Amino acid sequence: MVAEAAEAAEVAGKSLFYFSLFIMTSESRKSTHKVAIIGAGTMGNGITHVFAQNGFPVTMIDISKEALDRGLNTIIQNMDRMVQKEKITSAEKDRSLGLIKTSADIKTAVSDATLIIEAATENVDLKLKLFKDFNQFSPKDAILATNTSSISITKIAAVTDRPQQVIGMHFMNPVPVMKLVEIIRGYSTSDEVAKEISDITLRLGKVPVVVNDYPGFVANRVLIPMINEAIIALWEGVAGVEEIDTVMKLGMAHPMGPLQLADFIGLDVVLAILRVLQDGYGQPKYSPCPLLVNMVQSGKLGVKSGEGFYNYTAGNKELIVSKAFKP
Ligand SMILES: NC(=O)c1ccc[n+]([C@@H]2O[C@H](COP(=O)([O-])OP(=O)(O)OC[C@H]3O[C@@H](n4cnc5c(N)ncnc54)[C@H](O)[C@@H]3O)[C@@H](O)[C@H]2O)c1
What fold, for 219-325? Predict the structure, then answer.
């Protein structure tokens, strides 16, 4: 009896030991994720910010030294604002900033990363080239994620020899504020990698929603045709800029009207995503409004160019309709 109890205790002790070891291994793997973010632009610096703020060591990488300086400055300013608003303490800010490194050398920076998140310019050839590099220069078990708004995850995964470890991690702008991360499973993405990325998203204080890889995923498949329809309504003279935006703000409780949102996203980006939907589904309902095409061709890209449906000047928060749309 005593011997049996001792044996049971030993077995239980061993299982406890292996169980703790399992927890330690998976926990230590998680807590030691070394993150590399490619791109220091709008999204790259936001993603770097949230990883560092949540305790991950992170290297922000860009080919442009200027973009790296600008990106790091944006993170510092955003964290300063959070300290002023008492969302984080100044010690937390210092600790977070201490976890961030910058680099212009992709090959070295990804060589010991366990999670790589690509947030470089939305260009398919560029992304394919970057993923070939990640495949070659990062550790074999590293997860390769992309923040692409519209490019096929499956197509990106196909240039690597580890498509099961390639996944979409679609953060929303502004990253430190927005709660959603749309997680896109490519055709070959494994359950384990989808689960790991969902867990990491939760650790960032965000909400993961897992979707499958079809053009536009969910967010842009629903959002971008709505914006296009608002532009068509303007073009056809159904109503003016302010009227269309007000209907959607006050009538549908959207925080911002579709035309203002288009300016914020960038009209070139809206057009590019419509082209992806048009190519992917081959349906006329995704044809870009000719007004949108004209605006992009004439360099009226929204906030980033200073003019779109509205005019933008630094320091002015008032919404002023562009004179092209004034009666
Ligand atoms: N802006 C948004 O609202 C938004 C929202 C969700 C997803 N996205 C996606 O995020 C990605 C980045 O968009 P963004 O708005 O931050 O663009 P951005 O133009 O602000 O920044 C892109 C950065 O990538 C850098 N870059 C270009 N080639 C590079 C290379 N070879 N290596 C390293 N860095 C390189 C550029 O120098 C630039 O700093 C895109 O795929 C975009 O579709 C954007």
Answer: N-(1-d-carboxylethyl)-l-norvaline Dehydrogenase; domain 2 (1.10.1040)
How many other CB atoms are found less than 10 A from the CB of residue 82?
Answer: 19
Q: Is the CB of 215 under 6 A from ligand 1?
A: no
In the chain, domain spans: 32-212, 219-325
**Which residues are the active-site residues?**
149, 170, 182, 220
Q: Which CATH superfamily is domain 32-212 in?
A: NAD(P)-binding Rossmann-like Domain (3.40.50.720)
Helix residue spans in the chain (DSSP H): 2-31, 42-53, 65-84, 90-98, 106-109, 124-137, 153-157, 191-203, 219-235, 241-246, 252, 258-265, 267-281, 290-297
pTM for the whole structure: 0.87
Is residue 40 within 6 Å of ligand 1 at its C-beta?
A: yes
pLDDT tens across 151-195, in order? 999 999 999 999 999 999 999 999 999 999 999 999 999 999 999
> What residue type is assigned to position 136 of the chain?
Q
